[in-house]
Amino acid sequence: MKKVEGYPQPLGVTKRGGRMNFAVSVPVGKNCELLLYRAGSMKPEIVFEMPEEEGVGEVRFLAVEDLDEQKYEYNYRIGGHVCVDPFVKEVARTKQFGVRLNVDKHEIRGKFPEKEYNWEDDCQLHLPYHEVIAYSLHVRGFTKHSSSKVKEKGTFAGVTEKIPYLKELGINQIQCMPVYEFEEVTDSKTNYWGYGKGYYFAPKMAYSATGHASIELKDMVKAFHKAGIEVVLEMPFEREILAQTVVECLKYYMLEYHVDGFVVNPYVVPWESLKRDSLLKGVKLMQKDDSFQNIMRRFLKGDEGMICDVIRALRHNTKEDGKCNYITGHTGFTLQDLVSYDGKHNEANGELNQDGPDYNFSWNCGTEGPSRKRDIVELRRRQVKNAFGLLLMAQGTPCILSGDEFGNSQKGNNNVYCQDNDTAWLDWNGLKKYETLLAYVKQLIALRKEHPALHKEEMLLELDRVGCGIPDVSYHGENAWQAPTEVPSRQLGVMYSGLDVGDVNCYVAYNMHWNKHEYALPTLQKKKKWYWVFGTSTDMKVEEKPVENQKTIELEARSFVFLIGK
Fold first, then answer.
1. pLDDT tens per residue across span 215-239
2. Where are the alpha helices (DSSP H) in 397-521?
3. Crossing angle of helices 291-301/374-392, nearest 10°?
4. Is residue 206's pLDDT more than 80?
5. Residues with Cβ < 8 Å from 356, sequence gap 6 or more?
6. Which 3 state secondary structure label does DSSP give 36?
């Protein structure tokens, strides 16, 4: 093994022929050394100098001949301190989660890339935005709870074990919170979510079952693709990151891990540059946006003056801007907590309940926290079902927060960033407790898939595009063809024309008021009739039956209905 001349680009470690090239950015005036360890050892066996005069700009580089990468690990020592390569592709460290690692004691080291992986002809799925039903999860929290009943709890393999459940639910995309190597303890608290500093190119060792995080993440992606489910990664880069590094990182996961897309912060990353990149045009680029969430939460709880905003949110097209529709996310309340708490209860975080969002647009339905009162329990049940109706009957790409479909609660904590415990982990006992809700969500997802009028590819324009006499979308209330946009109104009827997509006409009526309301039904052509199909009162089974009065329909307080015309 000997040092030879290397190359300054690309940064990180690359193999060229029989040589391993090392390149790292080092501030001017600081010493730099390459440390090579025997695999598993925390004591450097070989040290190579990387003198400043041999560098270019602020990049130090060298190559090593005859290095057996499967028997060695590496770090750098810069200015007297041990440093992990920012571009490291995998790390060697304990698999235990929640450990503060001392880099200077060599408790974390860089690993060389694994040998060639057998993808078995796997590739990205490229599902159209309008056909995607997304599901947001935390890799560790999704299966760490004892009730998950998986073998490899809290790991990539554990998520893979839940594929049959996810297929039965009906989703076709998972959005994973950070899966890269991040600091698990910051400021004496557990960093459960994974936001903050990280080695963005390296999959999380603590999420592996065997200590081979790279292989296990690839196994997970391949298994999900075989099941027809996309894998999207949330990448909350730090603000200080270079734009070039962001682009390189996303391309790496796209090519090396066959990832289908990314959720990024457009205020941190160069959004327009990413959208223009030729390679990244092959994956989905998505961003978080609270607009749909806040509008629908306010409408759900009965705020006045929301109808115009709701109309705009219902017709939002995700393909245009990469923004999914969601009512709940990891930052904030779960859906069950959204209807059970007026305020946050984050005392367990140790910040005197000062952390987390203060404005949640939530409503506890009459009592703060858990309740056994029948009327409150029933109202919360209806509100959760209404929320799913608003989400899954809107035009954009819906994203469900994992566990919402079976009543998962975080006990009112809307910021579980430091809760690596039962508070943040999904409690799968809800599958039995909320089995009727789960059946309801499955039916609603199936209905969305069955009716392309509910998820059209192009933006709706309120125009008759195919000469059928009906616009692609129209709005109704107590009077047909008139949107009830008055400030006190909490009612809206929406008709989607289905002829242009080979579907029937679909009508969704929402009543978020605390009183009953009557809605005028638009007259159908060619002696067609309206049929009641689904609504808040639906439990286990979809029943299709003619509407008694074809001119009007009455909706119960805080409810929605789905009709089809045929």
1. 999 999 999 999 999 999 999 999 9
2. 430-433, 435-450
3. 140
4. yes
5. 332, 344, 346, 349, 413, 414, 415
6. strand
pLDDT tier at 303, thresholds 50, 70, 90: very high
DSSP string across 299-327: HHHT-SS-HHHHHHHHT--HHHH-BPB-S
Written as six digits, the tokens of 132 are 């995607």
Q: Tell me how far apart the alpha carbons of residues 11 and 175 are, in angstroms, rounded to a whole number.
A: 29
Contact 91, 110 (CB under 8 A): yes
Angle between the N-to-C axes of helices 291-301 and 307-314, in degrees from 0 to 180, rounded to the nearest 10: 130
Calculate mean pLDDT across residues 103-114. 94
- Bridge-based pairing of strands 545-546 and 505-511 is unpaired
Structure tokens belonging to residue 399: 């994203």
Record the tokens describing residue 411, joined without a space.
């006990």
Per-residue model confidence (pLDDT) at position 396: 95
Q: What one-character-per-residue DSSP string does 263-307 give?
A: EE-TTTTTHHHHHH-TTGGGSEEEE--SHHHHHHHHHHHT-SS-H
Mean pLDDT of 144-162: 98
Average pLDDT, the chain: 96
Q: What angle do CA 227, 228, 234 make, to 5 degrees?
A: 100
CA separation, residue 477 to residues 13, 486, 553 (Å): 63, 11, 10
Please identify which residue in the block is written with the tokens 């880069």: 237
Q: Across 66-218, where does the E strand assignment appear?
A: 72-78, 81-83, 90-92, 109-111, 134-137, 173-176, 180-182, 185-186, 189-190, 198-203
What is the number of alpha carbons within 13 Å of residue 412 lying toward its C-beta?
17
> pLDDT tens for residues 540-558?
677 899 999 999 999 999 9
Residue 13 exposed, middle or buried by CB count within 10 Å (0-12, 13-18, 19+): buried
Confidence of residue 141 (pLDDT cuts 50, 70, 90): very high
Beta-bridge mates of residue 199 = 181
Peptide linkage before 471 cis (omega within 30 of 0):
no
What is residue 539's predicted lDDT score, i.e. its pLDDT? 77
Span 25-52, mean pLDDT? 97
**Does residue 525 register a pLDDT over 90?**
no
Nearest Cα neighbor of 553 from 525, 522, 512, 515 is 522
Nearest of 31, 40, 8, 46 to residue 83 by alpha carbon? 31
For the four alpha carbons of 14, 19, 25 and 31, in that order, the dihedral sign comes to: positive
Q: Is pTM, for the whole model, over 0.90? A: yes
Give the SS3 label for residue 251.
helix
Token duo for residue 156: 């990539």
Residue 209 pLDDT grade (very low, low, confident, very high; cuts 50, 70, 90): very high
In 3D, which of 79, 90, 82 has the Cα closest to residue 39? 90
